[in-house]
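Run: sequence + S-adenosylmethionine -> complex structure.
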Amino acid sequence: MTDKRFFEPLDQGNGRLHAPATSRNRQPIYEVLRDHLPQHGTILELACGTGEHAAFMAPKFKAHHWQPTDLEREHLVSALTWAKYVGASNILTPRKLDVMQVPWPLDNLPSDVTAVLAINLIHIAPVEAMQTLIREAGRVLAPGGILYFYGPFKRDGEHTAASNELFDQSLKLRNPRWGVRNLESVADIALRAQFADPEIVEMPANNLSVIFRKL
Ligand SMILES: C[S@@+](CC[C@H](N)C(=O)[O-])C[C@H]1O[C@@H](n2cnc3c(N)ncnc32)[C@H](O)[C@@H]1O
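>> structure
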């Protein structure tokens, strides 16, 4: 079910949802992606939520296809409605993808996947989701492809801000298997999946962009 703490219905009946955080983080995330994504190919967005990131960014990546995916049907409907609302012809029909279910259903894409995006996902899922995601991204991406994470991270096992620690506690109250991940643990798994050491970009509100390039 759609989590009403993150997602608000935007208008009556047509399925478009709004997540207030996307209005704040979409421009900073776009600026990082602009500087790091390969020049072409399909951008595979995991856990697209409302679809607002796709609606905002896809029109700025005209040379790419943008494939929104999520676990929840309601989110896929929202992403489709947003794509139509902004008239972005390079947004592909959103598809159901559970990052834990391998292999990912990526048949009939119009171009190779050159980037995998996971924005605000790995802390809101069991640690196995993060592990599976990295391994599957490593399988799907060719050398030079990008795996991008956005969200809060611990560094060397420690929170970097009191607000992240509180957020971590609130996540664990909702589900003991959720939680803010340790950047070094993520990087270790990525190394084993043939990714280079990450590039880190500090983002507003104590979040990070973490960019892994496939070797
Ligand atoms: C906090 S929301 C983030 C949504 C969006 N990326 C954003 O930043 O606004 C987390 C999203 O992860 C999705 N999700 C949770 N577990 C998932 C899984 N195993 N596979 C795919 N998506 C998942 C949820 O349905 C939800 O849309």
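>> summary
The chain has a mean pLDDT of 95. The radius of gyration is 16 Å.
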